[in-house]
């Protein structure tokens, strides 16, 4: 009996991977029962440009499937997480900060950023042990430690970077600031933190959010790649853009009183209150 798996917008079967146009893209060979069997390659391309953004090789063992490898693409060249990139050229001794700089270059569209955080970050509770920050906590027993982004890119397990919401927000904040946008890690009701920023295009403004669980929003709606075709923002003022990006989280959000995390060195979760003007200032990369 043919086994069929549906992943995103494509179908993977024991015989072939079908794209939206139904053309055969990958065929597997037969293997003995019970062995890991290659069944297909999932690719995601930009609906705007057609550029290959992501590739995932999957295999089947018994009744379940597993991911063998996954990569993003930049200018046609594949790349993965920090440990993998470091091993490609050991003599180069790629540092975590250099990898973050690379991500800021490679994730050069909203579409790529959204896909990267969806596929390469997994929520993990903070370690309950201050002497071992990489120990995994549980919902009932965990600490409250903010990983610097350079630590998060090194904390990799099962093909994903590990961390909780503040670690996720901090990583996103650093990448987006390296790209020139004044992003901030915002505290919202429910003891949660997310990354938010405002962009000005064509004299108007849009508000963006990167949140855990692969959630990437523009002006309060889930992001669509087709929006990148627009060369003008949606709102006349940054206040309107901020209200839009916050509407899923806090309808009473005050642009003159925004609770943000502010210590980029990691450690305790330090906070301060800023106004919306902090989102419109030029980025100081020394304080990324």
Outline:
With about 290 residues, the protein is of the alpha+beta class. The chain is built from six helices and 18 strands.
Structure explained in plain terms:
The strands form 4 sheets. This protein has a 7-stranded antiparallel sheet with strand order 16-15-14-13-12-17-18, with helices on both faces. It has 6 helices and 18 strands. The chain folds into 2 domains: 76 residues, no CATH class; 171 residues, no CATH class. The longest helix has 14 residues. With 288 residues, it is α+β, with helices and mostly antiparallel strands.
In the predicted model, the low-confidence regions spanning at least 5 consecutive residues are 1-34
User: Which structural category fits the helices and strands?
Assistant: alpha+beta
Round the Cα radius of gyration to an integer and report it.
Answer: 20 Å
Report the sheet with the most strands, covering strand number, pairing sense and barrel closure: 7 strands, antiparallel
Amino- and carboxy-terminal Cα gap: 54 Å
In terms of DSSP E residues, the strand content is 25-35%
The helix-strand sequence is: EEEEEEEEHHHEHEEHEEEEEHEE
